[in-house]
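re the bet — no i am not wrong, look at it urself. input seq straight from the record:
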Amino acid sequence: MSSTALIFEREELHEGKVVTLAIKYSSNKKYVYLSNNGGTEPILTQVQAITFDRQGDAILFTVRFLNGVEKVGKWTIP
C-alpha cells in the first residue's frame, strides 16, 4: 500500500491462482480505477486526489474531487 495505491493479492478460486488486485489513482486521467489481472475499470471519476491509510483491520481513504468536495470512506479488511 502507498498513499495513492492500494495493492493486495487474492486467490482466484475458479483457477486456483494468485493474481494482483489494485486500486490506483491516475493523476493524468483524474480517476480512481480497479486493476485486476491486466484489466482496468474506473470506479471514481473527476478525482483531484486520493489517499489511503491503514489503521488496524481497516483502510481509511480520503477522496477530493475536482469540484472541491471531499469524502472519507473506510474498508474493513476481512
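see?? The chain has no helices and seven strands. told u. also The first strand starts at residue 5 and ends at 12. so pay up
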